[in-house]
Amino acid sequence: CLPAGAAAERSAGGPAAAQAREQPVLEPVLPAPAEEQNGTDSAKAPKVNCEERNTTGIDRFTLQILNVSQDLMEFLNPNSSDCTLVLFYTPWCRFSASLAPHFNSLPRAFPTLRFLALDASQHSSLSTRFGTVAVPNILLFQGAKPMARFNHTDRTLETLKDFIFNQTGIEAKSDVAVTEEDWEGPLPSVLTKSIDWLLLFSVLFLAGFVMYATVRTESIRWLIPGQEHEHQE
């Protein structure tokens, strides 16, 4: 699925279109050490040394969904080494909806980490900044720096737990599973029908430009000497 900004660029034939067509689901992982394959057979040493948060006094572990007025950078501390898993999604993408219950269960599996989610169509500047062309897209941040991108096409609780363990060395709680409450929220697992206004505007703009170019071409043809004579003959 594509967020609104990427869909508009795809309709206009921009560079993001070719990239989105090649990889319709998830972007490649970030460069550097985080680019290795997510799996249990990858390197044993953690790639990201996360500072685990103090969970004393926390009764309920859940993810936080940012609204349109909230900035992701306000929730990431650049001066700390704590880790946050951030999901870029759109409510009308079926891949985002199928991932939702699995991502909802992650905070219980990793209580010492933080989990955030944001609607990529409402945060287009962040999508551009972090190369989030297709959704769902999951980034692991240390402080305010993106360290690794989840690149598995099989997006389940188990593959997500493997990804976090391989990157951080933090083991998940073994008794955590996807429950009925995880299907209900906080991340929606039911598709939301919505009109992509930016994509609609792009299509109308292109149609208007084609019509304008056609009219201008006909006008110029009549202004060229000899063209009107050819039509009369």
From TrEMBL:
InterPro entries: Thioredoxin-like_sf (IPR036249), Thioredoxin_domain (IPR013766), TXNDC15 (IPR042418)
Family matches, as CDD domains: PDI_a_ERp44_like
Lineage: superkingdom: Eukaryota
SUPFAM superfamilies referenced in this protein's UniProt entry, alphabetically: Thioredoxin-like
A Pfam match: Thioredoxin
Keywords: Membrane, Transmembrane, Transmembrane helix
Region (Disordered): 1-44
GO BP terms: cilium assembly
An annotated GO cellular component: cilium
Residue spans crossing the bilayer: 197-215
All residue ranges annotated as the Thioredoxin domain in the record: 26-169
Low complexity compositional bias, start-end: 1-23
Protein name per the record: TXD15 protein
Lineage: Eukaryota, Metazoa, Chordata, Craniata, Vertebrata
